Automatic annotation (TrEMBL):
GO terms for cellular component: plasma membrane. The keyword Cell membrane applies. Pfam families: CBS (PF00571), MgtE (PF01769), MgtE_N (PF03448). Acts as a magnesium transporter. InterPro entries: CBS_dom, CBS_dom_sf, Mg_transptr_MgtE_intracell_dom, MgtE_N_sf, MgtE_transporter, SLC41_membr_dom, SLC41_membr_dom_sf. Homodimer. GO terms for molecular function: magnesium ion transmembrane transporter activity; metal ion binding. NCBIfam families: mgtE. It is found in: Cell membrane; Membrane. This is Magnesium transporter MgtE. The lineage of its organism: Bacteria, Bacillati, Bacillota, Bacilli, Bacillales.
Amino acid sequence: MVKLTKKTREQYTKLILDTLDAGDKEKFRDTFLDLHPSDQLDIFVKLDGDARSRGYSYLTPGEFAEIFGGLDISDQKLFFLELDEDYSIRMFNQMFTDDVVNFLTEINSERAEDILLQMDKEKAEKIKALLSYAPKTAGAIMTKELISISSTDTAADVLEMLRKEAPSAESIYYLYVVDCEGILVGVVSLRDLIIAAPDEVIKDIMTTRTVSVPEDMDQEDVGRMIKKYDFLAAPVVSKDNHLLGIVTFDDVMDILEEEVTEDFGEISATKGATDLTLSPFTAAKKRAPWIIILMLFGLVTGGVIRQFEETLEAVVVLAAFIPMIMGSAGNIGTQSLAVAVRGLALETIEDGGFWKMIRREFSTGILIGIICMALISVMITIIFGNWMVALIVGVSILCTFGISAVIGSTIPLIINKLKLDPAIASGPFITTVNDIVGLLIYFSIATSLMAYL
């Protein structure tokens, strides 16, 4: 199997296009099928409609199934419309159940039902079972294509069975041992199976210390568990420990990417609008509500400044430092927000660690504030020749940094305590809050020291 570099991928793409243009089916198949599946996918998405049509006719539904399963949903929808109906049904029959479920959940429900009616009955029943689970749970993302064995089988029996059944399984690195009622009782790794004596019984090879996930576990928790134990796959079980399916490492990679994208969207107030394939209108529609809310929230900032008009009129030079105070408050708050959200996501914030986190961020903010206070005070004294203004700005920076750090870390921790996603404490929201806090501190200190200006 050939794996391509960027340069060779371009060469292979041209070669495959040439074979398609020439109608050379055999050369196309020899060249294309010799590539790694990921490279096949990369090349296929670059073909135009006519080239893809010839590609469909040169590939069997089973061969195209692996390519289709790896496509983004937008490409899947496009390619599906190009496929002959019979071809697509045979392709779905040979795809892994979780990949079919991913596609069917993204299309019209009536069309999905029509596809299921035309598929093999046994396959369709497995897919319907997955579709019955709540979205983003272990049951919804698991696959039914796994290898289960009996504890009374011998190593030789299992190896012989693998030769027949492995091609249809998504993963064979772990073999799950079940009793006569389908209850999970153990697991055998492929490595242990291969090195075992042919006549050795599975119950003597397997480990009974199985780590499984309940069918209703959130997909993000499933991902964390597989990451924690360095699994290639994890068994999914019912409440009475019946083996239902497996979640594989490649699915977890997709899940974690999806969750990171979602959290990034929350924390940057761009939820649902991070996809570059969205039209400007759709992206604007998704991003506008947060911007409008923050814009209205920004009116509070204007109100704070208006309340201290007399101070500004008396000492106009104070206005020069408003952007710096606001920017610094927002920056330190966003840093603390990122630390808190990351800690919650990785579960590195221990139970009872709320106050420890607050103390740590407050101390960090104060230490940074001392450094910045010393620096800015010296600069203002030299540039403006007014040590009292330097003192006001410096002390304001110090207080603002300490309080803003606490705000940035506290809000996501409180939201997490309320069982909500801490990422909704978006950066722009924290920045706006800290802008207001920074201005209140700045003008309060300036007003109290007006007599010395």
